[in-house]
Design brief:
CATH superfamily: Glutaredoxin
Structural class: alpha+beta
Strand order of the largest sheet: 2-1-3-4
Number of helices: 4
Number of strands: 4
Shape: globular
Number of domains: 1
Distance between the termini: 24 Å
Strand content: 15-25%
Length: about 110
């Protein structure tokens, strides 16, 4: 499974998303989940070359961030939270949290 996030700026996502991507970015390519993040500031050509991303940006005022799983748009205009990621991928992301975060939904910005 391939999870991609197309975002306006690389610092736009919360710590929870960063942790998920960090956890899976070091995995081997044959693992269950591959992740990629692209930001418009650094890679504008990637956004115009990808048909789904380009079309969403042309047709919607606020298309970014855009979450794509295996070539299918799953979320438009907002970052997925842990519950979204679990639902979208079928994997449990609830346990990937910053140890300093004690909340249960990881929307506090700490985890």
């Amino acid at each position: 499974m391939r999870l991609e996030i197309y975002e306006e700026k690389s610092d736009g996502a919360g710590a929870a998303i960063a942790q998920v991507f960090a956890a899976f970015s070091e995995e081997a390519e044959n693992e269950q989940l591959q992740t990629a993040r692209y930001n418009l500031e650094d890679e504008p050509d990637r956004f115009t070359r990808h048909p789904l991303v380009s079309q969403a940006m042309q047709n919607m005022e606020q298309a970014l961030p855009l979450t794509i799983v295996d070539g299918e748009i799953m979320l438009i205009g907002e970052y997925p939270d842990m519950e979204d990621l679990t639902e979208i991928t079928g994997m449990n992301f609830q346990d990937i949290r910053n140890k300093a975060c004690q909340c249960s939904n990881c929307k506090c910005g700490k985890g």
